[in-house]
Specification:
It is built from 23 helices and 31 strands. By secondary structure, it is an alpha/beta fold. It has a seven-stranded parallel sheet with strand order 11-12-10-13-14-9-15, sandwiched between helices. The two termini are 58 Å apart.
Length: 771
Amino acid sequence: MSENNTLFDFSEQSRQEALAAEVVFDHNLDRSFSYIVPEELGAIQPGQRVSAPFGKGNKKLTGFCISTEKTSNTKGLKRLSKIIDSSPLLAHPLIELAQWLSLYYVCPLGQVLSAMLPAGVKKGLGFVQKRFIKLNCDNIHEAEEIQKKLKEGSKQKRLVTILTINHAFISGGGIESSELIKEAETTSQTLKKLIDAGAAVCERKAVLKGSHELAAVEEPDITLNSSQEESIGQINQKIDESAFGVFVLHGVTGSGKTEVYIRALAKAAEKGKKGIILLPEIALTSQTILRFKKRFKRLAVLHSGLTEAQRASQWHKIKLGKADVVIGARSAVFAPCDKLGVIIVDEEHESSYKQDTAPRYNARDTAIKRAQIENAACILGSATPSFESYFNCKAKKHFKLLKLPERVEKRPMPQMQEVDMSGRRAFMSEFMIGEKLKEDIEKSLSSGEQAILLLNRRGYSNFIYCPECAHTIHCRNCDASLKFHLSDMLNENSSEKLYNTSGLALCHYCGSRTLVPKKCPVCGRQLTMRGSGSQKLEMELNEKFPKAKIARIDTDSMKGKDYRELIEAFSKHEYDILAGTQMLAKGLHFPNVTLVGIVNADTSANSSDFRSAEKTFQLISQVAGRTGRGSKPGKVIIQTTAPDSPAVKFAKMHDYEGFYKNQTPMRDMLGLPPFRKQALVQIRNEKKTRAEEDAAKACETLSSLIKTAQLDIRLKGPFEPPIGRIGREFRVNILLNAANPAVMMSFLSKARFSELSRLSSKLFFDIDPLF
């Protein structure tokens, strides 16, 4: 038979009914394709991966079967080459979730389905082949006959005895060969002789590979307060009823939100259901993971810190129903749990839940949708809820606000004190630790206590600057200034006369790095470093507190290191001061920390992002919550040049609701979230003029579609973003704004197949963007 006849069905039988599968592929083609399922391939189900010929060259691509149907119209349809998976990798609820994600986030379904699976699972990792030994008989009586033929006291007889005791017969399970040899205190050669004699058989099986394990920690019994009991009661009612509901758990830092999560997960497990809990920066929340490990024996962990094989092993463990609780970062929202009872998003306000590549989903909103599909409870926990979640409690019937207004054991909230640095800008340009903060650090150290210092900026300095001609060193790929990072990786050689050998200039957008010239390339004068980062903070701390043990924690310092080891060392007081970026603000519990210093509370307050005040309030409140969590009261020093700003003023009073009421009227007036939904359409091209031309065409197309359908959608643009070029691509934005999310989703589902799909530039959609 020719190759064409194996690919297509042109025969008389093509008029008879055959099984056709709808298949989607992991590429930009935003549609499905129909294929004939040859009878010799056997049964197929949605959620299985297939190999199929694609395009004129019939290149074999891997795709996902999303549906099947009997059809008599098979003429010209290609035939599937192979069914890759023996059973569906993705169950129906996850396929339904993927279809919603594809529509809402304007992303091809094949890309969404592919993103739901860890890379290791797609590569077939997670299992290891092991040898299992069985006796070549069916029962104990036959086993005794085998033993009679063996010499008394021999190692072979010992092997048969162990296999008999464990009922390792031909029709049942076996014993893994290395375990059997170890228990019998013999060798593989002895076992081989038993097999060669026909007394035993060896069977190879794929078993889950040894997975990433965490040691459990002892934890005292916890008595709930009335607010916790009330919150758990309402959540458990939904779990009992297998009913969908979203609970925004607004609890101040140290109020016992984690215990509420644990009780909800325990309730789900009691009902035979599974639970998922999402954490931001999971490598930094090892303390939280250890608490869950103590309470749940059947626990799976999914995060990027695992190897591909470990992650795949954990995924298969969940798929096989061997885990009651799944804990992980953003992508754990796709964990293949059956009978989902509850899904929890801790620190739900965190921007790290938003994926920045396709599909650009928000794990918080995805968790809500998954809970709705599977009739599960969804808990969104935070001391500083996003305005969107808080607003939904008042606007949507399925949302319920639960409050934990006090810390556990009635511990006081930390004392907050701002220090006005507006008159000390010259000092702040050279130093970071003011006199008041220095004095309080000294007091903490002399009392045997610990301190945490936050500066939410990486590197040593903000930019490399010439004071003579005002030239700054920029990235060659991006419209952004380079940041100076100290480095001990450089070799001092003959170039030291021309270049600064203490570090490198890094781009925080594209990741490029370069040597730093000592002299300005424009005027030849000496270059200087302006602004401050976490590296400079660490150096200043070492200079001012030479006897203190200081550790820095940010994405640079932690490369190739174990977060957990550093956190554990700090909790054991092996360090006195922990300094770093916003990573410090998340999920850490140190009873001996009595001081938090916010070195510069204005790092995000001056950006063009309309959420900048909200982010500043959240960061101050979250890092402040790291102190006073033990028997000793806590104190927070906030260094700021804007002490009267709402973010600082309300954070100082621990007044979230007051801050929300202060900020939302302006958002409402301007038509900003949470009152209206946003969608960003971005055009990218390496040629600026082409990007601008295509952006104008896209704007015209979208405007026409909105006008024709008479939709309540506002359009702004085209306009250049604050960083107009990243990774050598020029970017032009168009911003859409709608009161009704359903209207926006319907509009974009049509717009994605309009003239926009024929632009020569790259086109990206970002729904509910975080700027």
